[in-house]
Amino acid sequence: MNTLNKTLALIALASSSAAFAGTEFDTLDVDGNGAISQQEASVDAAISAKFTELDTDQNGELSKEEFSKA
To answer: Which residue numbers delimit the EF-hand domain (predicted)?
Structure first.
């Protein structure tokens, strides 16, 4: 999936409040690399607001373990 398609998918998901009522890690990990980047997290206001706090190793992305503490 190219970058444009990923971006469009993120926009489509973000526009549906029902899709993010119970955001799951795999839903936000659009590129499937096993981590959530700040860009991927930006579609969920609650996760985005807590991103820095949750990113305990300060590597700029959330692991499943870090995300589970949200």
So the answer is: 42-70
